[in-house]
Design a protein that fits this description.
Elements lengths: L2 E5 L2 E3 L5 E8 L7 E7 L6 E6 L6 E3 L7 E6 L4 E6 L8 E8 L4 H7 L6 E2 L3 E5 L2
Length: 128
């Protein structure tokens, strides 16, 4: 059974940091481009950051560029999202997604394919 499990969310003050993890089981992430998305109730889902399976190339939404860093550790079958200088507008449920069809940049901009796998999400709250 293919499964992605996010962790690392929580409550943090503005300017603080969190590191989200996305652990895969039932399949290897080596051949999947990985994306982090976030969603706030009443708003469209946003592609935050995505990473290539082939060369580690990355994509960041303008709203997080320079503050967030995506990485992957294929040996641990895990992807990470380091979030620094957090702002209240970063508050959302964060999801990771694995897609073997859609390339990383297209995934973030246009969304993953219908064959992608999603985690259950982890809540991030940024407020003082």
């Amino acid at each position: 059974q293919l499964q992605l499990v996010e962790s690392g969310g929580g409550l943090v003050q503005p300017g603080g940091s969190l590191r989200l993890s996305c652990a895969a089981s039932g399949f290897t992430l080596d051949y999947y481009d990985i994306g982090w998305f976030r969603q706030v109730p009443g708003k469209e889902r946003e592609g935050v950051s995505c990473i290539s399976s082939t060369d580690g190339s990355t994509y960041y939404a303008d709203s997080v560029k320079g503050r967030f860093t995506i990485s992957r550790d294929n040996a641990k079958n895990t992807t990470y999202l380091q979030m620094n200088s957090l702002k209240p507008e970063d508050t959302a449920v964060y999801y990771c997604v694995a897609d073997a069809i859609t390339t990383f940049q297209d995934m973030c901009v246009m969304g993953p394919s219908g064959l992608s796998s999603w985690g259950q999400g982890t809540q991030v709250n940024v407020f003082s």
